ABC transporter ATP-binding protein (Aristaeella hokkaidonensis), 599 residues
Amino acid sequence: MRKQFAWLWKNMDAPFRRRHVIALCVCAFTCLLLLVNPALSQRLIDDVIVAGNPKPLLSILAVMLVVKLGREGLRYMMVIFLEKDSQNVVFNLRRRLFSKMQYNDMAFFDTHRTGDLMTRMSADLDWCRHFLSYIDYRIIDAVCTFLFATIYLLLVNWKLTLLLIIITPILLLITKFFSRHVRPRFVFMREKLSEMNTAAQENIAGNRVVKAFAREEYEKERFEQKNQAFMDSHLRINKLWLTFFPIIELLVNAIQLVTVFVGGLFIIRGELTPGELAIFTGLSWAVSNPMRELGNLINDLQRFSTSAAKVMELYYGTPSIVDAPDAVAHERMQGKIEFDHVSFRFDTKPILTDVSFSVQPGQTVAVMGPTGSGKTTLIHLLARFYDVSEGAIQVDDCDVKQWKLSELRGGIGTATQDVFLFSDTVEGNIAFGDQSLTQEDVMDFARRADAAEFAEKLPEGYDTIIGERGVGLSGGQRQRIALARAMAVRPGILIMDDTTSAVDSETEQYIQDQLRHLPYECTKFIIAQRISSMRDADLILVLQDGKITERGTHSELLAKRGYYWQTYCLQYGIPMDEEQSTASGSNSAVGAPAAGMGV
Ligand SMILES: Nc1ncnc2c1ncn2[C@@H]1O[C@H](COP(=O)(O)OP(=O)(O)OP(=O)(O)O)[C@@H](O)[C@H]1O
């Protein structure tokens, strides 16, 4: 807990820290002020009522009123200070956490559910705010009220005071027991909250799939289970609390009884004046209330501690893929790529094995292969989303591990398989990677990606806001905006991962032509299933089970009669026997049917 407080403190700006200390001192001072009115009540009873002397009456009442008003005013100021300080910390934390998430490894996002991360950024952070704006002052309040009242009562009558506080050690023991048992329940509850949020988030993000499969009822049921589990975890805590709470209440109420009963006896024996008994009855709550509060505070503290631990995990997590200390600065990326005996494993599962190839700047390399063969992983390694397990990847004759990450990734434009567009205008989405693009540039790249025609027809043209994930656009339209976005950063390496799979052949042909005439030099890295997307590539790689099984140009691969040739025959409806006899002539004859089919 101390660590967590130190962490929050570290994230509070200096002026707010000063104010926070002042606010907590004010809190302690107002606890001291609590003693004034019971002390004045004693004088009121002993010196005014019992003595029959009305002279000091007005002055006593005036001081009581001033103290009461002053105390309320100070508490008001304290609450405002605490609220502002806690907001300052949460603001700083949110900023830092968001930035942390930006730089986290791909592996981090592979293993953390979105719903869980959202819970850390919202509910868990709110518990950090709650600690600074409420829990910490309530602790000081309880401790100071108890201590000041006890000391004062000891001075008035130590025997009666000892009777009042005799139950304190028992209470502390019960509290310790409660605290030990409630913590794992809070950890469990936090997990259930995260699962519930994840279910809600996935349902919202995947609502189209839910509808398409008419799985609303199933989803409702699934969420119901998570909701129920979260509620049950809450109830388990409440159950524990309910076994603990009556014991505390009983002990605390005993304090009040002892005060009146033993206090009365002391008056009869002349050991206490009626005014002094008024102090005891007036302050017995100040001794008993903090004890009563203990359970609540422990609940809150454990809840805070569970949430803070989750936020701290994110806060202190360090990405494993970072700039090397001796990273080399590069001007513009030229686009020379070399994979040198690259192998890659996810945990122990081999994904790529001994992959070697090289591409010169400006060339086009295409990769094809069955699904799951490791094509996307190749580009993930190139952009250093993951580090190779063995071998090395060089870009412009420099190991990618020696590149500054921002320059490496900034030099690669990627149109990914799974298109994600932001809730922004079409123009904003295309200019995402380069905010300095002019409107003319945006329109030019949209034209090259064949996105101009439909973009202009949108209700507000390029200023039309498209929804999250490009809602409102067709799959092919989204792919074309994603391609324009990748082209627009003028990368040294342009990666197209299944980018034209959802567009028709004519559009694909148009895009292919445009790719040949980009207004800058770049290496093109194409991942595709269609032969038409790759037939003009300088190098075509066939990847099977993470290994390169075929390599060469279109005609060389057709001549090999392997996977590429089979795919070719399947896609162009050529019986394999017939193709074999056609291809037994020259290489140009092999290319002829496809060219003739206009694909
Ligand atoms: N984050 C991950 N953790 C573990 N395994 C993964 C992860 N991402 C991918 N894989 C596995 O790596 C293998 C290669 O995946 P990859 O996405 O590179 O294939 P692909 O050839 O691009 O497939 P597709 O054509 O379907 O896109 C697959 O078996 C996949 O299950």
